[in-house]
Amino acid sequence: MGGAPWRSNGCNTCRKRKVKCDFQRPQCARCLRGGHRCEGYERDRKFIHTFADPAPGPSDALTVQSQAEDPSFTVINVNSQIRSQLFSLFVDSYVPSLPVGQVNFRCQQGSDLFREFPSIMDGKNSQLFDRAVSALASVFVGRKVGDDGLMRHGVMLYNNAIQIFSRLISKNGLPIQEVLSANVVFQLYEVINSTSGFAGWMAHMQGANAVVARHRKSLERDELSKLLVRQLKLSNIFHAIGKSKSALLFCPMWRALSPTMSSDDPIDEIIDILMECTVLVEKISSSPPESEVQRLELACWSLRHQIQAWYRRLQGSSLGKLYTPNSDLTEVPLSPSAKSTFPHTFHFVALDVAEAHMLCWTALLILSSFFHRIECQREYQPQAVYALSPVSEDAKSDDQRRSEYFLQEAEFYANQICRSVGYFIKPHMNILGGHNLLFPVSMAAKFFYGNHFDDKYQWCQEVFAVLDSIGLGLANVLQGTPWSRYKLGEVGS
User: Fold this and answer.
1) Which residues of 318-357 are buried (b: 16+ CB within 10 A; e: fewer)?
2) Please, which pLDDT band fits residue 400 given cuts at 50, 70 and 90?
3) Which of 126, 251, 458, 468 supports an S-S bond with 209, CB 3.0-4.6 Å?
4) Is the dihedral of CA 355, 320, 366, 256 positive or negative?
5) Crossing angle of helices 127-145 and 80-94, rounded to 10°
6) What average pLDDT does the chain have?
């Protein structure tokens, strides 16, 4: 899916927009996923996602046909009932099954995005959503059981769903909830079947942003819409931090949507704080002058106080401890040497509490890293700068001590993230548990790599290998990701 290198003969729309075209035919994927009308190339080509052998249309029953010219290639036609069964199998493998005696915490009140999806189909005939979920389920099940025919069928449905998506967004009266739901499914498809690195996932995220920007007033205020907004905001935050940009740059209306689409759920509160952290990421990464650094430092402290107040409210919602130490190292299936890196793991009272803590520790890791970077900039300012004001050697050593303190604090939060991994990859957590690890473990790995904690960075690489083995193909891309290349847009392109 990576697309061809830039040439001047891209599609007419990409040429007008002066962006890189991926040369998908008859309409390029960048236009389709980004919500733009592709004006074509004036010659025929195949879609990138199609295979060399054409597949017949769907039939009313499940059949497997061998083509005479290529006996190794099978085409699978799946009727609606079997597609529904495939999706049910995917949901059962993706959504955690609560162990005996465990209940959902009050954080999310039992709401789950994928369990809400059937409401979209309630009394409706949605070709887009039907094909999107069928593509996801077919590729997932095919990958799990090693069925290449089923995976080919899933890719065919994926290609077809993207075409339907492009037709829908060009019409008035866009069914925005259906379109955004399909987009979230597309993103998860790329997380599981990550054949193009980050490129496919990024393209779908940008497409969702375009849809929200144009049609946000049509977005309902029901539970499903709130869960969709939450998922899309998290995608933007992950992408923004990787790019060292503000998430509001990619989708400025997220801040306006937050008061109306967020709930009292602690998860939504901490996501909004993370969104504001991305604003600081961009400003601090640009090496601002000292006068601006002081304002940014105050903004960091303000966000830190917000997190502390948020956590006090979270603690007040429970009569007991939200998490406890756990010395069972068998939870994390890593090499013996890696297991000794974090000898004490955590057990949480519920998955949504664990997710809230991971987002909280990620936000604090980001803020502590900001403070560390600010103090380092002060510590290594030229002597001429110090000469402009009466700054003593003791003051400079204070900057160094503060720098070391914030580095240790950032390491502490990165360690907290890693000690939580065992809880998320328990068998009953299924794929969703591992999915919740991709962002926080990536941030921990980025910190360890940048500050030369080599043993802890290698530990994160083993975790990514485990996540890849349970069905999260994007973890293989994250394994060893050079963050400087991600920032420049060279990873997965």
Assistant:
1) eeeebbeeeeeeebbebeeebbebbeebbbbbbbbbbbbb
2) confident
3) 251
4) positive
5) 60
6) 75
